[in-house]
Specification:
Blueprint (H helix, E strand, L loop, with lengths): L4 H17 L4 H16 L4 H7 L12 H13 L3 H9 L2 H7 L6 H11 L4 H9 L10 H18 L3 E2 H15 L5 E6 L1 H5 L3 E2 L2 E7 L2 H9 L4 E7 L3 E6 L4 E7 L4 H9 L2 H13 L3 E3 L2 E4 L2 E4 L3 H7 L15 H6 L14 E2 L13 H10 L4 E4 L14 H17 L5 E9 L10 H6 L2 E5 L8 H13 L3 E4 L17 H11 L2 E5 L9 H9 L4 E4 L11 H10 L13 H9 L4
Parallel strand pairs: 4-7, 11-12, 12-13, 13-14, 14-15, 15-16, 16-17
Antiparallel strand pairs: 1-3, 2-4, 5-6, 6-7, 8-9, 9-10
The chain binds 2'-deoxyguanosine-5'-triphosphate, calcium ion (CA) (2 copies) and zinc ion.
Length: about 575
């Protein structure tokens, strides 16, 4: 019964929520959230570290003594007394309200106290009856926003982040491969297509001994309950509520099954109609001419039988893939190994957990050739945003580091500068002009009108020092809707001014998303995939961004930070650096 990093991260998030509800010190709340993020990003299971040597936890940036001790308790007992204590102090219903995007702890507490709201259903009713708007500090607009976000909250209970699914998948595949007779094991479905969220997992196994595979599946540490078990098919639900369907298939059908269960449904429907046009039949067992199976062992074989090249799973959404395939123009999708730079990251000078040197070192270890250090500007006071004096001090250190890393790593003097509510940048023009790399982003005034937000963004794009707009829609998956912004206009202006747009790789952002990134490219915008790392491990989020870029159909040439340094500098500054 090992606890996963995702579960530990969630526990610390819950601590933070509960503390926030009680009006605890914001820095304490923030520190729990930081720890949660660090643990979520960690490639090695915390449970393994505790098993080997708990002291090693302290070597991880962003984990202090108290969090390390709590990790140890969690791993060893599966529980956290401090959490139980906090839980007892806060009414159960309140916590459910907190999960609704846009409902801060203060508002949740008020709803509970003033209207006696105990559940999400209560809240929905109160909103529909117009009772919420009558509360002090709420109003009609808030009431409407809550109603809109209710559906998001309900959805959040059903779909998990791809990155969290991946943690489970990696452990599950390792576990299943230990069963005797397993020849192949893969996870199909939305996971394989790289969708930003995953509803359930669809696992395929080739084995000569199906019942042994299922016995092994039942022993997977995360299993909460077995939903069904047949001869070749079994379904379980994990302790956290994720359903996993397992199918054992014969080797000669593996490709057909992988294709079928990878989907998407819309892609499969198109495929089936193409099969019919050729007088063929396709199902999860193979491609058939009459009774004869003509393909099925591999996916390549299946697609080839229908006169198609193999289509990468990320593209299988019945968007443009068939058109591309027909024209022989399937893009060569960007790969993680092609990424050479990371142009958005934070250090402990603002809200990151590691020093500048540590981030640089971590970048070198990941074979990056150039990075931009982009701490927050002053407006983001909660994150210790840097004023010009602190910024220039950091930049001097970067000059020194660049000497030290000569030939190995280029460090750009950057900043993530807020686009102010009233419009304009959060730092003076002369300071921004000194920077190598200015990332502009909106963190405040997200509820403004479409016109206001679009105008702010266009101003930033037109600012001579700004290079890229970070997380251009501001959405947080399952938590916050994107702000209202006219993306068409943003794409057009960005293209015209030679500015870049970010695909933020953080698992709960992925912003721009796949569809928007594809549209940006259509407009001739170059995309930048950035981790927005707040810790050395945060740099590993790059692959989530790359996955979304692949879903957008992007090749290396569509992504600025795949370029070697000399090309990069030519594209950015018009000269070789
Ligand atoms: P999810 O789980 O909601 O994130 O999304 P998927 O795409 O993994 O969907 P899921 O788990 O319901 O089904 C897995 C795949 O199986 C799906 O992508 C395509 C295939 N499939 C499921 N139902 C149908 C169907 O009614 N017709 C066809 N052609 N394929 C289906
Ligand atoms: Ca699925
Ligand atoms: Ca499924
Ligand atoms: Zn950032």
């Amino acid at each position: 019964m090992t606890i996963t990093n995702a579960e530990i991260a969630e526990t610390f998030e819950l601590m933070a929520d509960l503390l926030e509800l009680q009006g605890a010190n914001p820095f304490r709340v923030r520190s729990y959230r930081n720890s949660a993020r660090v643990i979520r990003d960690l490639p090695e299971p915390v449970a393994d570290i505790v098993a080997q040597d708990p002291k090693r936890l302290l070597e991880i940036d962003g984990i202090g003594e108290s969090v390390a001790a709590k990790c140890q308790t969690l791993v060893q007992t599966g529980k956290l007394p401090q959490l139980e204590e906090l839980r007892a102090q806060v009414p159960e219903g309140l916590l459910a309200l907190l999960r609704i995007p846009g409902l801060g702890p203060k508002k949740a507490a008020a709803l509970h106290k003033e209207l006696g709201i105990q559940s999400v259903a209560d809240l929905e009713k109160a909103c529909r009856e117009g009772r919420v708007r009558q509360l002090k500090g709420f109003g009609e607009k808030t009431e409407k926003a809550i109603l809109e976000n209710l559906s998001l909250a309900q959805q959040a209970e059903q779909r998990i982040f791809w990155a969290d699914a991946d943690q489970i998948v990696q452990q599950l595949l390792k576990h299943l491969k230990q069963a005797p007779g397993v020849e192949q094991a893969e996870v199909a479905g939305s996971y394989r297509r790289g969708r930003e969220t995953v509803g359930d997992l669809d696992v395929l196994v080739v084995s000569t001994q199906p019942s042994k595979v299922m016995d092994q599946f039942a022993k997977f540490a995360d299993v909460g309950e077995v939903l069904a078990r047949g001869d070749t098919k079994m379904s379980i639900r994990t302790k956290r509520g994720l359903q996993i369907d397992l199918r054992v298939v014969p080797a000669e059908s593996f490709g057909a099954a992988l294709q079928y269960f990878t989907g998407s449904k819309a892609h499969n429907i198109e495929l089936r109609s193409r099969a019919r046009q050729r007088g063929l039949k396709i199902n999860e067992y193979g491609v058939y001419r009459g009774e004869e199976r003509i393909a099925g062992r591999t996916e390549e074989e299946v697609y080839a039988a229908l006169g198609l090249p193999w289509i990468p799973p990320e593209l299988r959404e019945a968007r443009q893939e068939f058109q591309w395939a027909d024209q022989g123009k399937l893009p060569e999708l960007v790969r993680l190994e092609e990424i050479r730079g990371d142009l958005h990251m934070h250090t402990s000078d603002s809200d990151g957990s590691a020093s500048l040197e540590e981030m640089a070192e971590a970048a070198v270890r990941r074979r990056l050739r150039y990075i931009a250090i982009t701490d927050h500007s002053p407006r983001v006071s909660m994150a210790h945003g840097l004023d010009p004096r602190r910024l220039r001090k950091q930049w001097r250190l970067i000059d020194e580091l660049n000497d030290r890393y000569e030939g190995k790593l280029k460090i750009l003097k950057g900043v993530e500068c807020d686009i102010l509510e009233k419009g304009g940048m959060d730092l003076p023009d002369d300071v921004l002009a000194e920077a190598d790399w200015v990332v502009a982003s909106i963190h405040y005034g997200q509820r403004q009108s479409r016109q206001q937000i679009t105008e702010r963004m266009l101003q930033a794009i037109e600012h001579p020092s700004v290079r890229v707009i970070a997380h251009p829609t501001g959405r947080l998956i399952n938590r916050r809707e994107p702000y209202q912004v006219d993306l068409e206009t943003v794409f057009r202006e960005a293209a015209q001014h030679g500015k870049f747009l970010e695909i933020n790789a953080t698992p709960d952002r992925l912003d721009l998303n796949d569809v928007h990134a594809a549209a940006a490219r259509q407009h001739g915008v170059l995309l930048v995939i950035s981790t927005d790392a707040h810790s050395p491990e945060g740099l590993d989020a790059m692959r989530y961004g790359v996955l979304q870029a692949r879903r957008a159909g992007l090749s290396a040439q569509d992504v600025l930070n795949t370029r070697p340094w000399h090309e990069f500098s030519r594209l950015v500054w018009g000269k070789s650096g």
